Amino acid sequence: MNMAKSVETLIPSRNILGSGTKLKGDIESNGDFRIDGTLTGTIKTMGMVVVGSTGVVEGEIICQNADIEGSVKAKLEVSELL
Q: Would you call 46 exposed, middle or buried from its count of C-beta atoms within 10 A (0-12, 13-18, 19+)?
C-alpha cells in the first residue's frame, strides 16, 4: 500500500478562484472551493462551495454545502446545507 496516496485522500484540498480571474470549463474536486472570480461551467465537489461577494458562477454547482454571496446563474444541487 502506498502511504503517500492514502494520506492524500484523507486531506481534502482547499481551492480558490481569485478575484479578477475568469475560467471557462468544468471543475471537479474532493475539497472545498472558494470562487471570487468568474466561473462559466460546472463545479462538482464533495466539499463546500463558497461564492464570495465578487464571485460569479454561470452553469451548475454540485456540492455538499454552499455559501452564496455573489452572483449565481446556475443550477444548484446541494446535498446538505445551503
A: middle
Residues forming a β-bridge with 42: 60
User: Which residue type does 49 have?
Assistant: V
Q: Tell me if 55 sits within 8 A of 43, measured CB to CB.
A: no
pLDDT digits (tens, 9 = 90+) for 14-52: 999 999 999 999 999 999 999 999 999 999 999 999 999
38/32 Cα distance (integer angstroms): 17
Tell me how far apart the alpha carbons of residues 82 and 11 are, in angstroms, rounded to a whole number. Answer: 23
User: What is the pTM assigned to this prediction?
Assistant: 0.84
